[in-house]
Input
Amino acid sequence: MLTGKVERRPRGDLARVLVIDDEADIRELLDLTVARMGLSADCAASVAQARQLLEQQRYQLCLTDMRLPDGEGLEIVRLISERYGETPVAVITAFGNAQNAVAALKAGAFDYLAKPVALEQLRSLIKSALNLPRRNGAVDGNQPAGSATQLVGNSPAIEHVRETIDKLARSQAPVYISGESGTGKELAARLIHDQSARRAAPFIPVNCGAIPENLMESEFFGYRKGAFTGADSERDGFFQAAQGGTLFLDEVADLPLVMQVKLLRAIQEKKVRKVGSTVEESVDVRIISATHRLLKDCVDAGTFRQDLYYRVNVIELKMPPLRERREDVQPLVEALLVRLCGAEPPRLALQSIKALEAYSFPGNVRELENILERATALCNDNTVVLDDLQLAPALVVTDSQGREGESLDDYLNRLEKQAILEALAKTAFNRTAAARLLGVSFRSLRYRIERLGIEE
Output
């Protein structure tokens, strides 16, 4: 293979892969693997050669090393992300260098491989990348991709969620979905899966808080026959069930520390060992996790491992509470009523709509659905009036500083934000000094700034 010239091999209209690596033997291995899969490869040994090829040709996949003689693989990731967004990029990292892999995923890489490259994982990655739906919604010319239309509403907050889901679906990176209970974290995870290259494989949701601690390892990784009393036959676990697809770990903060160690190894090595087995088996699973808690607070409290936190929280998707997108209440009501009652649902009186739009919804969309389900069972004359809703008395601020219709949560958040902004202003935005002024730790102040969306 050449090292000083750009290597191009025209092969008709085959799907094309750009291979970038300064080691000739690695380029040859990748080129041969691509060719045996019936694809066409162009090879480059540097960032400059890669730039030249990208200007001349469109690629369905790019495979790049992280260390190149004239730059870093991250340069390629950022360049393609900005200028050639349809092309997924996978990076090849040194063995055990998780930091580089995470940095690449955050920069927009589709996935990563560790040296020495395992051919089985390489072929699986290539197939997944070529199976990505195009951004116009088409997958192979006639098969529609999953749609985010199930996320009802047109508020800026929910539009941002849709845009983020579209980006996350074009990556294999682990995703952490944060948000209060009832905001639709599992729905978001399903939409990411349905729009991804893994959409034809299983989506396996797991409630981590509902599994007894003594059964966790066997539930996640499976077990061999005779591994323990009652193990009458061999059984697969959640990882094997999600093979090729997505494993959704709901309430991941509820995992005990012992299980967190084993989960971390499974994610890093992409291998699991069944209980009672002496050998590991490879698994190809994308991890999406969620919890209503603040994972950073759990790390600070010592109940969640920091190394696992950085592995599951490569990219975060924040689901907004319903009180922050009140303009979506009415379309949500209409959609939920159709789901609950069919094509001819009861109508809501104007007073009922106004009451729902003013309500704080501590249980978010899930609470709204429960309210409507109860109201439709109680209503008369096919009309839901205010009494049918049976709304809990709203916590409303009534002092002179409060705002009409403002809930207690909104009021407290506003006061907290105001106090933090005043402290930051007094200290010229020195967070350490502001934390001292407020009587809180620096870490606590940092969490509050992120939670309240304060920007310098």
